[in-house]
Structure formats: structure tokens, C-alpha cells
Amino acid sequence: MTRMVFKSVANLTEDPVEVFWLAGFVCNERNEWQVRVVYRNKRTGELIPMCEPIGMLPILSLGTWFDYGLLQTEGLPGDLMEVVIPDVGQPEVITSADMPSSLYRLPTSRAGHQRLFRYRTRHGVVHIPAVELIRALFIHNRALALALMRPAGLEQLYIPMAPGPRELATLCFTKEIAKSVLSRELAMEFAWLVLDVEARRSWESVRCLSAGQDCIFFEPPPIRGSSWQFRGIRHENQMLVLELNNLSGRAVPVKILEYTHPDLKKAIRAGVSGAKPGNPKGGDKPDTGEPGDDIDVAGTDQGSSGYRNPLVANMGRRQSAFESQIKVIKKEIEVEQAPREPTGKEPKKKPRHKKKIQVTTSERAGGKGLRPIDFGILCRAPLHRIGDLVAFDETIRHMRDRLPDVQFAAGLVLLKQGKAAASVGSAPRAAMVVRINRLKEPPIVLIDIDRTGIVALSLMVLHFKGGEKEDWIERAIQKTLNGWADVGGHWSTDVEAEMEPMCRSERIPKAMVPREGFEKQAEGWALRLIDRLGL
Predict the structure, then answer these.
(1) Distance, CA of 205 to chain centre
(2) Contact 134, 128 (CB under 8 A)
(3) 23 Cβ partners below 8 Å, 6+ apart?
(4) Whole-angstrom Cα distance, residue 354 to residue 419?
(5) 80: helix, coil or strand?
(6) pTM of the entire structure?
(7) What is the mean pLDDT of residues 218-226?
(8) Basic residues: which segments have biased composition (predicted)?
């Protein structure tokens, strides 16, 4: 799995530290916006103020912690909760001094005199820091974080259009937002932000009400009957949102949404009618890192060339919940590509070795010319625990080493909440999705789920038939995972039948058992999977 080490945090102390509070935005002497973060030493309780690049905002939820700079994804504080907010746009505005000390003790002199929103619901009184609601509504990646406090910053990411409802809208993204972070979900989030009049007004209010202030504040948009799923703390009937994972009730004011980007290209053979997907010569290849890479994130004194060409660390996605059902279309630019003449020699690929990648979350280029890092589409500091999926991860490593000509891409996702099987204790259950791409062959997707508390579960394999668009493959994965949760912890035969026209589902029982001592068995499991899948 990708490990992310933040040098600025590593230099604070040798003890583990957690994000205790976000105390405002500040613009430094280089005209770069930063977040005033208050860290807490987990051993001593000491509060440590620090200014971090605003590009880190996507991962700065309360309770996120670091072990000598290494971002941790396990053991986050709080429990999973769900409430319905009558109207997000009608909160009581309070300060940190008004929040019950039994819920979260904020020393004003160190953590700042901050703004929170209070909502009264049937389930109790909900408190949420203004900055956390900003993160949930608007900050889905580094590019949006950088644009937040800049005048006309949002207009740098797309070709502007007037807000308001319409039948068809085309989002024309610019190169200031990386192609590698584009997806159906991001397109919908972005369309809501720029086309919904109240959402856009709310975005603009962040800069107007927070710039030059010692607190973060904004005017939330009206969203009625919004269901919130969050990690939080509860004391009696009082709740504090540490990380808002999902909120419903929003609607994108279009029926058909198209999106395009200068680097969304599809290669077609010269002189041949009909397009075949591929990377045009000289085109940008998205770099999302590889499972197992160490991503070394520089401190505030080192930067990048702004938004462009970031390395993307896929760390799990926040679930989008829109009321409107719209059609989303990715438009690609067709580029003519001359066919390559056969050489008769097969290129040899060396086994891949783990590497350390130097990146930054700052805005400007420094002396070392570090690449920027983005945190993936709708990415947040993950709540999941990898659990026994480490066995699957190790097995995939051995498969990758055995098959240097086959591409493997892996990532962890959270299961849809609301069903008992979708959680492990108070935390969401995680699943690992592995995509296998072979030359001139349809993709294969492997899905495994954390087995904690599960007696038996087969490994799921999705054999696609070829020609499927990326959005459809992603929806097939989501349908499979949702089906597993909906039927109480078993693969759904109804979902398998529904997807049969596009992909064949295969269950492989006892693929990686027993998982104790997996280090010694993973290579054997890998060989058996290679044989079973015909790789």
C-alpha cells in the first residue's frame, strides 16, 4: 500500500501527533495560502501550532494522525454516526467557547477562537466546525483547495459558464486541474458547485468571510433534509463532527452533463475508421503512483508549479449523494496515431522495485522542483482499517513480480454504510479492488473484503468482455460491493445476473486461507491465482 510521509510533521517531534484543530487561513510572504493547523502530541498532550500548505486541506480532518510524519489510516478517534439535518443553510453560529467542554475541550489561547455550526435534530444536537463543512462540500482535491482562497480561483480550473439549471451542460476543464483526478463523481461535484446558484454563493463566501480573519467562516448553502454520515464524538445528546463522510440532499441542475479536458485523448490509427482507446504519442500519462511506493511530502518551504501534473495518491473516496439522476458523459479528443512497425522483438520489463517519490503540497516551485501531490478524486483521510486485506495485498505483490508485462492497479474502498455487514465494530469495513490489464485483453477486476467477523467469503473476479468505458467498470465494481452489503455479507446473485451482459462474475472460494502467517503462503496463493485466471 502507498505510504505517505509528511516532512513538516516529521520535524515537529518524534512522538505521534494528531490534527487537533484548524485555526484559520493565512497568506505568507510568498503569497501562498496556508492552513493554521494545531497538532496535539498524542503522548504528552502538548499542542503544537503549525502552518501547512492549503493543498493539504483534503486530508486534514480532526483526529488524523501521523507517526513520525507517516500518515496513519487506522485507529482514528470517534464513532460512525448518522443524522438528518433539517436545513444545512440554517445553522446556529457558535464559537469554540460555546461548545460543551465535555464534548471537546478547546483551549482558546492555543487552538483559536473558532466558528462552528450547531444543528438541532431528532437524534440530538450536532456541532460541526465551519472548516469541516467546507471540506465536505467543496474540497475534493488539491486543485480545489488551492483555488478556495484565490480571487477567481475556480475560473482557472474550467472555462466559466453562467450558473443556473439547463438541459445540457459541458464542463471544459483546463490543464490547471489534473486529468488523473477526473471522474464521474468529480464532474458531478464540480457541476453542482459552478451551476447551482446557492452553492456558488457559498463557495465565494469562504474567501470573503475568512481572508484576514483569525477564524474560518462561510455561509452554508440551503440543503434540506440532508442525511449526514460522519465520524464523530458523542456525549449524552451532544455530537461533534470530526469528519463528514457523506451528505445527501444536493441536486445537480442539469439532465445531461458532459465533461472534457485538453489531455482527455483517444488514439485512432491513421487511415483506419473507428477509434481504439490508447495513449497518443506524446500525451500525458497519469501518474498515480504504485501500490508500495513511499510518497515523501515536502514541507512548506518547498513547492511545485501550481496545480499542474500532480502525482495522485488514491486513498479512498468520499461517497457522493445527489438527489438528481443525471447522465454523465466523458468526451475525449480523437488523436490520429501512426501504426508502429513490428520489430520482431518483445520488450523486456525489469521487475519493479519499491521507490520513494518526492512531492509537495505547496503552490510554487522550489529549488528542488518537486512535483505536486493530489489526493485523488473526492479523497479524504481514510477511515478504513486494512485488516486482513494485507494478505491479499501481499499476494498481489507476488503476482506483479511474476508478471512484469501485466499491469496491476490496487486500491482500498469503503463499503456503503447503513448495513450491519458494512462495518467492523465502529469503523467502516474496507474492500480491496485490484484491476489487471493485459495487452490486447479485456480487464479483470479482483475484489476482496476484510474478513473480520466473517466465517467464509470467496474472492470475487469480474471478467469484462472488452469495450467497456471506465465509468461503467467503476459502476460495476460499486454495484458488486453494494450488493454484498445489501444481502448481509454475501455476493449477490441478482447483481451478478444484472451485469452478465457486460462482465462475467466468478467466485474463487478459499483463495487465500488461512490468513495467519500469510507472509509464507502469499507466493503460493499468487501462483494458484495466476493459473486460475489464465495469466
Answers:
(1) 25
(2) no
(3) 36, 37, 38, 49, 111, 112, 114, 214, 215, 216
(4) 38
(5) strand
(6) 0.66
(7) 96
(8) 347-357
What are the φ/ψ torsions at residue 226 (nearest 5 degrees)?
A: -85, 125
Any domain includes 18: no
| Domain annotation covers residue 401 | yes
Answer whether residue 208 is part of any domain.
no
- Choose from 71-75, 110-114, 131-135, 435-439 the range with maximum mean pLDDT: 131-135
| Gyration radius of the chain's alpha carbons | 23
Per-residue pLDDT of 411-446, as tens digits, reads 778 787 777 788 877 677 888 888 888 887 888 999
Q: What is the DSSP letter of 448?
A: E
- How far apart CA 386 and CA 397 sit, in angstroms, is 16
**What is the C-alpha to C-alpha distance for residues 529 and 481, in angstroms, rounded to an integer?**
21
Angstrom distance (rounded) from CA 461 to CA 438: 15
| Residue corresponding to grid cell 516551485 | 365
Residues in CB range of 446: below 8 A, 6 or more apart: 396, 433, 434, 436, 459, 460, 461, 462
- Tens of pLDDT, residue by residue over 262-319, are 988 877 766 554 444 444 444 444 344 444 445 555 555 544 434 444 544 444 445 5
In sequence order, the 6+-apart residues with CB closer than 8 A to the CB of 519 are: 394
Within-domain flag for 222: no
Domain count, the chain: 1
Q: In the prediction, which pLDDT does 309 show? A: 46
CA distances from 58 to 5, 76, 217, 244, 326 (A): 15, 16, 17, 12, 26
What was the pLDDT predicted at 438?
83
HEC sequence for 150-211:
CCCCHHHCECCCCCCCEEEEEEEECCCCCHHHCCHHHHHHHHHHHHCHHHHHHHHHHHHHHC
Q: What is the pLDDT of residue 506?
A: 92
* 47 Cβ contact list (under 8 Å, min separation 6): 20, 38, 39, 40, 41, 107, 110, 111
Predicted pLDDT at 389: 81
Can you say whether the dihedral through the CA atoms of 459, 465, 468, 470 is positive or negative?
Answer: positive
* Domain that residue 410 falls in: 384-535
Is 204 within 8 Å of 185 (Cβ atoms)? no
DSSP-derived letter for residue 358 is E
CA distance 22 to 405: 46
Q: Are strands 444-449 and 459-464 parallel, antiparallel or unpaired?
A: antiparallel
